[in-house]
Write a structure and sequence with these properties.
The chain is of the alpha/beta class and 284 residues long. It folds into two domains: 23-147, Alpha-Beta Barrel (TIM Barrel); 155-282, C2 domain (Immunoglobulin-like), CATH 2.60.40. Helices cover 20% and strands 31% of the residues. It has six helices and twelve strands. The chain has helices spanning 2-13, 17-20, 34-40, 51-69, 91-95, 110-118, and strands spanning 27-29, 45-50, 73-77, 100-101, 155-165, 180-187, 194-197, 209-218, 225-232, 240-248, 255-262, 268-282. α4 (51-69) links the parallel β2 and β3 (73-77). It is globular and about 65 Å long. The protein starts with a helix and ends with a strand. Its EC number is 3.1.4.11. This is Phosphoinositide phospholipase C.
Length: 284
């Protein structure tokens, strides 16, 4: 016993106070209320919420939740009822300014597509700076009423889906040919949530030509993600997934662009792509 105590004492003596002072820890605390946190919380404290609890706060006090997250760290994680390791849509949590939105990375799908799309910017370092109106303590951004922002600047996103190139088969049968359509989804604040589709092209996955134009009014472009989804149309059952690509609207460049598609698990499907024209204008 004496030897063990002596060893512990020696290990403590070997610690450098100067080095320890450089380390900042996040202390997990129980969340009581936004008012209590505003009065008592320290900058290094982090509160954790299940997805359902976070959605409740967002629904009942969205602006207060955003303001809380301008001062404190918040972690959101999937509810325990997700025994199949499915994912919730993280966009709502990002709309509230939550800094740590945990997902089941082992499960591909829309949730992980959005996560990969958001963090594809900034060199995939795992960190994206929130817009200024969500960091300023003196401002109250309400994700349900984005038009009340002082710097409110809505835009119109116009995407002309022109053509596709060498889309993969989704059926292993040798004579299988896809009937592709393209769906463009906008993920952002509730007012911006939207999706539109092109018509489907029958029996042509090699070089389908759509020339369909899709238009979206977007009220908070700083928080919007754009998801391109290609599906194999089926009139008797659910469409089959072909490929997708997701990116922040703030990273989209105007003009003629190639969208290189990714598989369900996020790997590139070379050389499959979409050819589109992007226009961004002010909303009159």
């Amino acid at each position: 016993m004496s030897a063990r105590l002596l060893g512990t004492a020696r290990s403590k003596q070997r610690l450098s106070k100067e080095l320890s002072d450089c380390v900042v820890y996040c202390k997990s605390v129980h969340f009581r209320s936004f008012k209590h946190a505003r009065i008592h919380s320290k900058f290094y404290e982090v509160a954790s919420f299940t997805e359902s609890k976070a959605r409740k706060h967002l629904r009942e006090a969205g602006a207060e939740f955003v303001h809380h997250n301008s001062r404190q760290l918040t972690r959101v994680y999937p509810t325990g009822f997700r025994t199949d390791s499915s994912n919730f849509n993280p966009q709502g949590m990002w709309n509230a300014g939550c800094q740590i939105v945990a997902l089941n990375f082992q499960t591909a799908g829309e949730g992980m597509d959005l996560n990969d799309g958001l963090f594809s910017q900034n060199g995939r370092c795992g960190y994206v700076l929130k817009p200024g109106f969500m960091r300023d303590h003196d401002k109250r951004f309400d994700p349900d009423l984005p038009q009340k922002r002082d710097d409110y600047h809505p835009i119109v996103l116009t995407i002309q889906v022109i053509s596709g190139q060498q889309l993969p088969k989704v059926n292993i049968k040798e004579d299988s040919i896809v009937d592709p359509l393209v769906r463009v989804e906008i993920h952002g604040v509730l007012m911006d949530q939207a999706k539109q589709e092109t018509r489907y092209i029958e029996n042509n996955g090699f070089n389908p030509l759509w020339n369909d134009t899709l238009r979206f009014n977007i009220h908070t472009p700083e928080l919007a993600l754009v998801r391109f989804v290609v599906e194999d149309y089926d009139k008797t059952s659910k469409n089959d997934f072909v490929g997708q690509f997701t990116l922040p609207l703030s990273c989209m460049q105007q003009g003629y662009r190639h969208i290189h598609l990714l598989s369900r698990d996020g790997t590139r499907i070379s050389p499959s792509s979409l050819f589109v024209r992007v226009r961004i204008t002010d909303l009159e």
